Amino acid sequence: MGLIDGISIQLSQMALVLALSPLLTGLVRKLKARLLLRQGPPLLQPYRDLIRLARKEAVVAESASWLFRIIPYIVFATTWVAAALVPTFATGLLFSWSADLIAIIALLGSARFFLALAGMDVGTSFGGIGSSREAMIATLAEPALIMIVFTLALIAGSTQLSNVAGFMLSTGVGLRVSLGMALIALIIVAIAENGRIPVDNPATHLELTMVHEAMVLEYSGRHLALIEFSSSLKLLLYTALIACVFVPWGLAPAGAPLHVHLIGVVIFAAKLGVAGLMLAVFETMIAKMRVFRVADFLGAAFMLGFLGTLLRFVSRSL
Amino acid sequence: MERLAFDVAHFFAGSLVLVSLMLLYQDRLSALINVFAFQAVVLALSVAWQAYVQGAPHLYLTAAIALSVKAIIIPVALHRMIRRLGIHREVETAVNIGPTMLAGLGLVALSMVVILRATAAADMLAREDLAFALSVVLLGLLMMVTRRNAVSQVIGFMSLENGLILAATGAKGMPFVVEISVAFSVLVAFIVIGIFLFRIRERFDSVNLQALDDFRGEIR
Fold it and tell me: Would you call B126 an interface residue with chain A, using a CB distance cutoff of 8 Å?
C-alpha cells in the first residue's frame, strides 16, 4: 500500500513538473509584457515553441563531437530528476529518502558542467565566452548555496527536504534571523542560477552580455527544445525549492487521503503563480548589471548564508 | 516566553551584525550614511527590547538617545557635511569590496569563537549580545582601516560605538551615567571630527587621507 502510494505520488509529481514548467515560463513572459504595456505572447506559447522545435531538423556543426549530441539529454535528465526530488505538493515521495539538498545541488551542478562543455565543444567564440561566464557564476553561486544548505541543516537537523519541510510546518521554529538571511540568499542564488535579469537577460539573443543564450547558441531542433525545457524545469525547481522550505503550508503529508493531495496541487499552482508575479515585477523594476558586478551580487548571497550559519551556530551553542 | 525573548534579542543583534556588513558593502557615501542611520534604528530597537526583557526603564532612555542622536541628528548632519564638501558621489576603498567582506566574515567568526569560549559561565542573553557586540566593534575597526575617505572613517568609528552600546545593554547593571557619558563623548567626538574634516579640506583640497601620508613624505 505504502509502496504503491509512494510510486503514484512520485510519478504524478514527475508529470506535474513537466506539465507546469513551460506554463510558469509563459506566465512570467506574459506578466512582464503586460507590465511593459505590451500584449505579450499567449500563455501557452512555450508549449508551442517546444513542439515546433521538436519537429524541426537538428542541425549540428561539423566540428561538434559526440558529446555535443548527447549533452541535451544529460542536461534534461539530471534537471528532471532534481525537479522530481523537490516536494511540490506532497512530502510522501517514493524517493524522499534521497531528496537531499546536497544531492539536488550536485545534480544541477553536473547539468551545468555538461552544458558548459557543450558551449566550448563547437569551438565558436560565443560559446566559449558563455561557458566561461557560466562557470564564473557557478563558482560564485555554489558556495553560497552550500552555506544556505548548512544553515537549513543546522536549524532543521536534516538536509532531507521532506524533513526540512516537516520541521518548518511544526511550531518549534520560532523567530529565526538565520532563516530570513537564508531566504534572501536563496532568492539571490536562484536569480543567478536561472539567468534572470540582474545577472543575465533571458529574453535577448545575440547580445554581448548574454550568458546562458551564448552557451546554447549552436543548438537547434530537438536539442534546443530539450535545453529550453530544462531551463524552464530549473526555474520551476528553484521556485518549488523556495516554496517547499520557506512556505511549506499546503504540502500534503505522507499517507494523507487523495483530496488532500489534490488541494496540495492547487496550492502549489497558486504558489507558482505568486512566485511568477513577484519575479516579473522584480525583473521589470531592475536593470541588468555588468558582468563583473555579479561577483558582488553573489558575494552578498554568500555573506548572508555564512552569517546565517554563524548566527545559528551561536544560538545553538548557548 | 524565555525562548521568545531570546529569539527576538537574537534577531535584533543578528540584524545589527548584518547591517555592519552592509556598511562594508556600500561604496557610495550617501548610501553609507543611510545604512548607518538604519543601523542606529536597529540598535535602538535592540536596546528597547533589552529594556523590556530586563525590566530596566533607563535602557529605554538609551534607546531614545540612540534613535534621536544617531539615527536622525548625526546622519542629517553628515548628509549636509558631504554636500558642503561636494563629495556625495563616491567612496574610495583601499581594498576591494570582496576581500573586505571576506575579512569581515572572518572577524565575525573570530569574535564568536572567542566570546563563546571566554564567557562560558555567563548568562545566555549577555553572552550572545557580547559575541555580536564584539563583531560589530571589529567590523567598525575594519571599516576605519579599509576606507581612505575621512567621512567613511567617521562612520566606521560611530558604528564601532554602536557595538559598544550593544555590549553595554547586554550586560545587566551597567550604570546609566556611563552610558550617558559615552553617548555625549561620541557627540563631542563627532563635532571635533567635523571641524577637523573642514580643516583638512582647507589645507589639502580633499578629504582623502592619502593626502596626509603624502604630506608626511611617506612613499606608497
Answer: no
Q: What is the count of structural domains for chain A?
A: 1
Q: What is the pLDDT of residues B112-139, one digit of tens each?
A: 888 888 877 777 777 878 888 899 999 9
Instruction: Find the helix or strand (DSSP H, E) in which A241 lies.
Output: helix A221-246
- Which ranges constitute the DSSP H helices of chain B? 2-25, 29-54, 58-65, 74-85, 97-118, 124-146, 150-170, 176-204, 210-216
Q: Is B112 on the interface with A (CB under 8 A)?
A: yes
Q: Which residue has the higher pLDDT, A251 or B170?
A: A251
Q: Which residue of B has its CA nearest to A179?
A: B11
Nearest Cα residue to B14 out of A220, A63, A176, A194? A176
Packing angle, helices A125-156 and A101-121, rounded to 10: 180
Q: Which residue of A has its CA nearest to B101?
A: A303
A307 with B8: Cβ contact below 8 A: no
Spell out which residues of chain A touch residue B4, defining contact as CB-CB under 8 Å: 174-175
Grid coordinates given for A177: 534571523
Nearest CA in chain A to B127: A318
* Closest CA of chain B from A133, distance in Å: 18
Q: Which domain holds residue A288?
A: 2-317
Cross-chain residue pair A307–B112, CB shorter than 8 Å: no
What's the number of domains chain B is made of?
1
Per DSSP, the residues of A284-296 read HHSPPPPGGGHHH
The rounded mean pLDDT for chain B is: 81
Please give the Cα distance from A111 to A184 (Å, whole number): 24
Q: What is the pLDDT of residue B94?
A: 61
How far apart are the C-alpha atoms of B108 and B131, rounded to whole Å?
A: 9
pTM reported for the whole predicted model: 0.86
Greatest Cα pair distance in chain B: 61
The whole-angstrom separation of Cα B190 and Cα A70 is 66
Locate A292 and state its grid cell. 563583473
pLDDT digits (tens, 9 = 90+) for A161-216: 888 888 888 866 666 788 888 999 999 999 999 988 888 877 776 566 678 888 88
Confidence of residue B88 (pLDDT cuts 50, 70, 90): low
| Residue A100: strand pairing partners | A160
pLDDT band with cut points at 50, 70 and 90 for residue A222: very high
> Is A87's pLDDT higher than 60?
yes
Query: Which residues form the domain of B190?
Result: 2-216
- Mutating which of B6, B7, B15, B18 best tests the A interface, going by the most A Cβ atoms within 10 A? B18
